[in-house]
Amino acid sequence: MTPMNQPSTIAQPLARYAAWRRAGDFIFLSGVIAVDPAAARIVRGYEDIPPEAATLLGRTGEFSTDVKEGPILAQSWYVLDRIRQTVEAAGGQMSDVFKLVQYFRCLDHFPHYSRVRKHFFPGEPPVSTVVEVSAMLPTDDILIEVEATAWVPLR
Amino acid sequence: MTPMNQPSTIAQPLARYAAWRRAGDFIFLSGVIAVDPAAARIVRGYEDIPPEAATLLGRTGEFSTDVKEGPILAQSWYVLDRIRQTVEAAGGQMSDVFKLVQYFRCLDHFPHYSRVRKHFFPGEPPVSTVVEVSAMLPTDDILIEVEATAWVPLR
Amino acid sequence: MTPMNQPSTIAQPLARYAAWRRAGDFIFLSGVIAVDPAAARIVRGYEDIPPEAATLLGRTGEFSTDVKEGPILAQSWYVLDRIRQTVEAAGGQMSDVFKLVQYFRCLDHFPHYSRVRKHFFPGEPPVSTVVEVSAMLPTDDILIEVEATAWVPLR
Amino acid sequence: MTPMNQPSTIAQPLARYAAWRRAGDFIFLSGVIAVDPAAARIVRGYEDIPPEAATLLGRTGEFSTDVKEGPILAQSWYVLDRIRQTVEAAGGQMSDVFKLVQYFRCLDHFPHYSRVRKHFFPGEPPVSTVVEVSAMLPTDDILIEVEATAWVPLR
Amino acid sequence: MTPMNQPSTIAQPLARYAAWRRAGDFIFLSGVIAVDPAAARIVRGYEDIPPEAATLLGRTGEFSTDVKEGPILAQSWYVLDRIRQTVEAAGGQMSDVFKLVQYFRCLDHFPHYSRVRKHFFPGEPPVSTVVEVSAMLPTDDILIEVEATAWVPLR
Amino acid sequence: MTPMNQPSTIAQPLARYAAWRRAGDFIFLSGVIAVDPAAARIVRGYEDIPPEAATLLGRTGEFSTDVKEGPILAQSWYVLDRIRQTVEAAGGQMSDVFKLVQYFRCLDHFPHYSRVRKHFFPGEPPVSTVVEVSAMLPTDDILIEVEATAWVPLR
Fold first, then answer.
1. Which subunits sit against A, judged by 3+ Cβ pairs under 8 A?
2. CDD domains given for it (chains A, B, C, D, E, F) (predicted)?
């Protein structure tokens, strides 16, 4: 194992880029969006994530509420869970993530995202940068993109 | 002291995130905005920073001028000064900061920020990325957010 | 040679910032835009890059097509080529670049940029973050800004 | 066969109009959009055209690129192919088309359309008028409408 | 009678152009809008067309409905009726019209126009192109412009 | 000479299309814009047309006036003059043009264009369609596009 090894195939990228790269003791991840790369399907609401995740996020079962909160909550969960999977594929774990840069389509979504993030970081929180941008790939349905960095020292 | 230690309490964050984190020889900071966390007060002009800072920045005492330039100059000073305090709390100093990512609400503010930044980096300047974004937290009064990274090798 | 040495003069920055900085085994670059710093001239189309680059990018010779595609293709080429020059000036090479953050004025330009990027990274691709922002420096003619990081271990 | 005969049923129009009409030695076609009249389905991307056409147009298999370029490329192909079918139903062939009026939703799409058009007119190109309009029928998903005229002299 | 003769005075144009021109077996008409050239008056509703036409178009006598539907229905009727008069002045009849290019201010008006058009073309319908444009002459009250072509072979 | 012959090279097109095509006794022209194809230069004002044309159009020599009226007057003259050249290259003359379709960026320009058009059609005027569109190729500097058709019977 070299300090600069190849990305795993855990998260198939949308374009030609690596899902993660090791550089020294660091694992750098690409910005993650809520697109299921196998199905080329965008996560648009509770119905696109596992039922137990939807329950954890507070799905009410009331249409008017779920249709409003579902998209950002489901995308937040999906993105952070995929970051977790990617870091694990790279030999680390979620608590090794020490930095997040978070891009929103609309910062009114921040409180929803913030609540979801706490489930993924019960211990020491990462450093964080948050801005609102005009758009992300691939379409306007994308509400959030998160870029994570982890510290996973080689033995 | 470990290579990956706990954030200090110097800058109490608005949400649940760390003000800084050490990873190896690096200190990573969260994006900093001009909000006084103790008072939960946004820096809106010269009156929200120390008088000697306002003088340094060129406060004219003429209302029409100060009301235009004051907000971006005061926020620029506040943000960079808080970065300085945070790096020092992490065991380094401002000259250890080698990278800045700067988000603006309006790039017409850049020349003002640029002048302030020179006061904080009289020596070798950091690498720099500058973009204009739609919005930042917590409100539209925020004109700038700066994310800094420092190199502070452990003995 | 120290682990934290001075930026070369290869790419003369527009404001007071470094084109690159070494920190440990890493080379951090400033965000790069398509401005020729010597001539203070913005790259606006095929005519502002070498003819062989224009040919490589697919210049058709038809005015209506070239005037539409030329700006983003030429800026993409110029930015990535300047990143290559800067990394080489820092003692590395393009294949050492393992991370890119890419800011676009309009994400419809992404497919064009993506094709150009493949020419510069024929081997292992870097991790990648892509967002659309409102504006970049110095003017609205700038369609893309790319921030690169490379891993170039010291002997 | 009269100089002014009835439209065939090849392309079932959306409203009450003819797909084509002969007048003397000329065949006039209605403006064609990318709607499959049998299925009343709008062509939205590569998945709505035959796989070999998608390959010809340069489908990359990368989601972010294909989702951006697919709609205009697939609509361009569909519209021109349906013009070909209609002219053939009227007793002519694509090379008899000597005039095109092309309406775009966004002229940034022109280079993509232009490349597709070359596949359909390998020989002498038609005269051409190109403008950008506010909208076309039936919905905002329609990116292009093309009106063709052919010269097919009666024996 | 020559193959290329002079326009009649049936429809006095607003600027210096011909209402119609013969070229070979074809009669080409200028784009027609709903302006009464004698009175230099724009058709704005049912009150500007003959009562029996208003009845045919479905005038309800209810203000809220007629004020909404009246403008487009009355303009559609007026424009198509003037095309009929012009073609007759040129020696043909409405059924000789084989091609229409139709420009709308707002395509939501299309269903209304489409219903009116059926009254004028009970037999074989013409080929048709429909687009929405930003504006037409002389003012923003103009909702539709129709350009017709007829085939009226000389003996 | 056949009824359907090849376009001359008089007006080098911007993309791959013909400047004109004969079909039977008709000459069909592509939409013409004010771009000098040899120099790939857009006509932006009086300085881009011959001085005697500028004088004819009413150049005042007063900057404020000429900078407002110059662009549309110069483009109108250039476009109609190029139509004249193209028709002559096809074996006809300006008086053979019997139909014009005119696309404007802004219909406030119409009176200026209309005055210029009278110089080119001192005799029988052509039929005419006028609409305002969102944009034309190649850039937003283009204020007008004119599509002409001529009747030039073969011996």
1. B, C, D
2. YjgF_YER057c_UK114_family (cd00448)
Cβ contact B17:B30 at 8 Å: yes
pLDDT at C5 over 90: no
F28: containing domain: 20-151
Which ranges in A109-154 belong to alpha helices (H)?
110-120
ipTM score of the complex?
0.89
For an interface test with C, which of B119, B128, B134 has the most C Cβ atoms less than 10 Å from its Cβ? B128
Cα E22 to Cα C103, F84, F99: the distances in Å are: 57, 20, 10
Contact yes or no for D144/D44 (Cβ under 8 A): no
Q: Assess if residue D127 is contained within a domain.
A: yes
| Residue range B118-152, pLDDT digits in tens | 999 999 999 999 999 999 999 999 999 999 999 99
Which residue has tokens 């271990």? C153
Q: Is D55 on the interface with C (CB under 8 A)?
A: no
State the residue for tokens 């489409």: E114
Is residue C11 a part of any domain in this protein?
A: no
- Tokens found for residue F24: 């039977």
| Amino acid symbol at F93 | Q
Q: Give chain A's domain count.
A: 1
Spatial distance between the Cα atoms of F94 and F81, rounded to a whole number of angstroms = 9
Using DSSP's 3-state secondary structure scheme, residue C47 falls into: helix
CA–CA dist A4, E129 (Å, integer)? 60
Q: For residue B132, what is the enclosing H or E element?
A: strand B127-132
- Cβ-Cβ pairs closer than 8 A, C with F, add up to 18
pLDDT tens across E119-135, in order?
999 999 999 999 999 99
**How many residue contacts between C and D have a Cβ separation below 8 Å?**
29
Where does A60-109 show beta strands of DSSP type E?
A: 97-104
Element (H, E) at D127: strand D127-132
Q: In 3-state terms, what secondary structure has residue B95?
A: helix
Cis-peptide, bond into residue E71, ω within 30° of zero? no
Q: Using CA atoms in the order C19, C22, C25, C27, what is the torsion angle rounded to 10 degrees?
A: -10
Pairwise CB contact (< 8 Å): A124 & B15: no
- List the CATH number of the domain containing D69: 3.30.1330.40
Strand pairing of E41-42 and E35-36?
antiparallel
